[in-house]
Amino acid sequence: MSSSLFSGSRMKSFTTVLLMAAGLITSTLSCNNETATTVPAGPQHFTIASWTQDLQYVAATPSLLEGSLTFKGKGLEANGSRYIWHKEYVYLMNLPEKRFVQYKMGTDGSLTQTSYILTDGVVPNYFQSINIVDDNTLLVLGANDSGNNGSIGWARLNVPDLKVVAKGTLTVPYDAAKPGLEFYPGKGYVDNGKFILGGYFYNTATRAYEVDGVKALVYDYPAMNNLKVAQTNATAGGIGYDYLSSLTTDEEGNHYFVASAGKYWTGLGGKSGVLRIKKGATEFDKDYFFDVTSQVGRQACLMGMNYVSNGIAFGTVQYEELMSSVRDRLKNVGQVVKLDLRNQKATLMNVPLSPVSMVRSPLVYNGKYYTGIAPVDQPAFIYEFDPAGDANAVKKGISLDGGGSVQVQLIAPHPTR
Predict the structure, then answer these.
(1) CA neighbor of 230 nearest in space, from 280, 169, 285
(2) Given CA atoms 20, 25, 29, 31 in this order, what sign does their dihedral have?
(3) 363-365 and 368-373 as β-strands: parallel, antiparallel, unpaired?
(4) How open is the CA angle 285-291-297, to the nearest 5 degrees?
(5) pTM for the full model?
(6) What is the rounded distance in angstroms from the CA atom of residue 293 to the CA atom of residue 270?
(7) Which helix (H) or strand (E) holds 372?
(8) Are 105 and 151 in contact (CB under 8 A)?
(9) How does pLDDT run across 337-357, given as a tens digit for each residue?
(10) Whole-number average pLDDT of the chain
(11) pLDDT in tens, 38-58
């Protein structure tokens, strides 16, 4: 009888205890393994690229709000004209050497050059337009210095190893009757199997921009063929300028191009603002043009913007009434502007005027917007802007020393793990 009981109900109880014990051991081992492999987050660092009085630098700082950053003798000398950051890497295009250079940002604040690619012959010259397609892919475009004659080069790069995985040429608008008129590729993005590209038209013979409304070029991706042109007459200028932060995307996946219609920037002095192409679409939203020039109340050309959240972006306007040539963009002619993209309302922020390089590659981080403001012959600082506030929702951050002058080109956050 007792043997029978052991083999029945008692056996079931014993088995249950064993299974529970095994589960507890497995759970404990799992927790221990998880604890062993989880790396605690370290302090946050940021890399800032800047042009200074004499040289160009890429340097790291432990804060954007407290302390100061001196570029001379700090960080790495780096000759760049186009900058981009993606994940834990900073990339820049070195024009004199025709090198596309990669730097790794370490969790300890270190910054190390890890690789580069010689760009000559790839697109086929330097990378004029640099675009992040996904976590592992950059799409770059460029042309010969002597002109494109209706064709420019493209290449897909695998990152972070900087390998060219595909390249070719794509057709761009060209008028044989105007051999000096060329299309210059700007910022673009991939959506729903299409690559949609901004840019501008410039006539090297007349040394003037030529505009016919606003045009975006649409290609099949990844084939990069079957050109179609999306056009709107909401204003007349270029969109997505290549080395400025001139293309951004909201939470819903809608895309916003900066349309610069300035007399000294890709237009003829008209209304500058924001154009939208909705997620999955290949045409401009016919019901959307955010006229920033009229909102600001003076002849202001919108140069760039970055989306933050809840319909709010920040950008920079260039006051062309203070200019007599394009070189005057290096004077105090630019001001930060808050852009309510949903309600089409522009608010000038209470900050000093500065050269417009502040709009090259600002940073959106933890719901705030950061950019460098460096008035000529005045102290330079990083500024923080709160999208939830008014024109005074500004905080002055770290001071910047470039040995006489400094212009911030990029701000990027280091990984913390």
Answers:
(1) 285
(2) positive
(3) antiparallel
(4) 175
(5) 0.90
(6) 8
(7) strand 368-373
(8) no
(9) 999 999 999 999 999 999 998
(10) 90
(11) 667 889 999 999 998 888 999
